[in-house]
Design a protein that fits this description.
Layout (H helix, E strand, L loop, with lengths): L1 H17 L13 E10 L3 E7 L3 E6 L2 E4 L1 H11 L11 H8 L6 E10 L4 E7 L4
Antiparallel strand pairs: 1-2, 1-5, 2-3, 3-4, 5-6
Length: 128
């Protein structure tokens, strides 16, 4: 019995040592097949799109960015959202506005997971 407890303890310790530790907020892209964010401000329409595994696109006005720059922009927005919650809050929108997206009127997030389950979060100015 004592050998079993020692062996179990060693296995648990090894698992702890080899499991990567992450600090801060990290977004798990792979839980989504697609993820789309659209932001309508007073003057400009912005859109971020992700398709699993590595397709990122960011559009604003007549400009389109793809790849790493689009991913970084996407992650900057996602750092202010909690997609585990049922809705987007005014506080989250205020944080996004502080990033330079002024006077947001409508903000929509659509996610499709690997099982095909679709979730949509919609925030409209004045409807909180």
């Amino acid at each position: 019995m004592k050998k079993y407890l020692i062996a179990t303890g060693i296995v648990v310790l090894l698992l702890f040592l080899i499991t990567p530790v992450t600090f801060g907020k990290e977004f798990s892209w792979y839980q989504h097949m697609t993820l789309k964010i659209s932001l309508q401000s007073k003057d400009t329409y912005y859109e971020w799109e992700y398709e699993n595994p590595t397709s990122f696109e960011y559009e604003y006005g007549d400009s389109i960015k793809r790849g790493e720059k689009a991913k970084q922009s996407f992650e900057a927005i996602l750092n202010h959202l909690d997609l585990k919650q049922a809705k987007i809050t005014d506080d989250q929108i205020n944080q996004i506005e502080k990033m330079g997206y002024e006077e947001i009127e409508r903000f929509v997030v659509r996610s499709v997971d690997k099982s095909g389950y679709t979730r949509t979060w919609i925030w409209k100015k004045g409807e909180s």
